[in-house]
Amino acid sequence: MNRRNGLLIFTVAIAICFLYPSSIYAQGGAGESKEKIDESNAPDSSYLAKFHSIKVVDRLMEDNLNDIYMLKVIVSNFSDKGWDSDYQGVYNGYKKGMEYYYKRDIVQARVDLEKNRDDIKNLLKKIIEEYKKETTQMLDECATKVLTLHLDATTRSDPDKNDALHLNQMRLKIAYGQLDNSIQASRDHYYKGSIYHLRISKSYSIKILEDLSNPDERKGIQDKYKKHKADNMNRIYGASEKSAQTAK
After folding, report:
1. Quick one: DSSP state of residue 154?
2. What was the pLDDT predicted at 93?
3. 24-67, pLDDT tens digit by residue?
4. Which segments of the chain does DSSP mark as H helices, in order?
5. Which terminus of the chain has a smaller tally of CB atoms within 10 A, N or C?
6. For residues 241 and 61, what is the distance between their CA atoms, to the nearest angstrom?
7. CA 128 to mean position of chain CA atoms
8. CA distance 157 to 209
9. C-alpha to C-alpha distance for 57 and 187, rounded to whole angstroms
């Protein structure tokens, strides 16, 4: 081998060392093995990820908590619907996310609060389906009562009945309009808004049922829908009485 060829081989060897350093340093002695760390499921902890997480977490902290407050009212008023375990899961999920937030792990807080957001939406969708079914039943009963009054031969000649007819026709239109708005809100994934519309629809429905019932029926309606009336105002039925008893 002449001097020129030896210099060429040396140059190529140096180039390989720079191009593929990992292949050289990765080689160990016989029988050596390196443990591979699977971080495919670990959240991105880069500076940019932390920066973006701050805004997301700030928004979810408030939005999720406001929805949890509303869910607490609903689950308390309708404890027979079987939503308690779902609510507890939502509550615990929010608590877990906030624990990471206060420990300054902002990226993991974002991951947990985003999952918490999805869990909240799933519970809201369950509630909407039940509310929609109840509201539709109320409206069917209201429509029957308004129609009965409309077909009553004395309604035209009786000013009180005539006024009641026009008033409750208007209420019925509003109630059905709110039901339609609720359906549209659900399609737009605005689930909390859908519940608000259903509550308004139920409020008008209860007013119609009370107004077009005789005194004996009215008492039964008031008792039947007492929890709905409290819920429509985003209040827990009987909460004020419990507070008063606790204060004694």
Report:
1. T
2. 98
3. 333 444 333 334 434 445 555 555 657 678 889 999 999 999 99
4. 3-19, 21-25, 47-77, 84-102, 106-151, 159-187, 191-211, 215-224, 226-232, 239-247
5. C
6. 31
7. 10
8. 23
9. 26
How far is Cα 229 from Cα 242, in angstroms, rounded to an integer? 18
In angstroms, the CA 181 to CA 116 distance is: 26
Rounded to an integer, what distance in angstroms lies between the CA atom of residue 174 and that of residue 47?
A: 51
| Half-sphere exposure of residue 203: CA atoms within 13 angstroms, side-chain side | 14
Residues 6+ apart with CB under 8 A from 238: 230
- Name the one residue in this structure whose structure tokens are 């206060």: 102
Which letter, b or e, does each residue of 75-98 get, where b requires 16 or more Cβ atoms within 10 Å of its Cβ?
Answer: bbbbeeeebeebbeebbebbebbb
Kindly state the tokens that stand for 49: 């990820």
User: What tokens were used for 163?
Assistant: 């006024």
pLDDT over 80 (residue 14): no
Question: What single DSSP character describes residue 54?
Answer: H
Which residues 6+ apart lie within 8 Å of 50 measured at CB? Answer: 106, 107
Distance CA 8, CA 2 (A): 10
- Whole-angstrom Cα distance, residue 61 to residue 101? 10
Calculate mean pLDDT across residues 75-87: 96
Q: What's the chain's length in residues? A: 248
Residue 6 has what pLDDT? 53
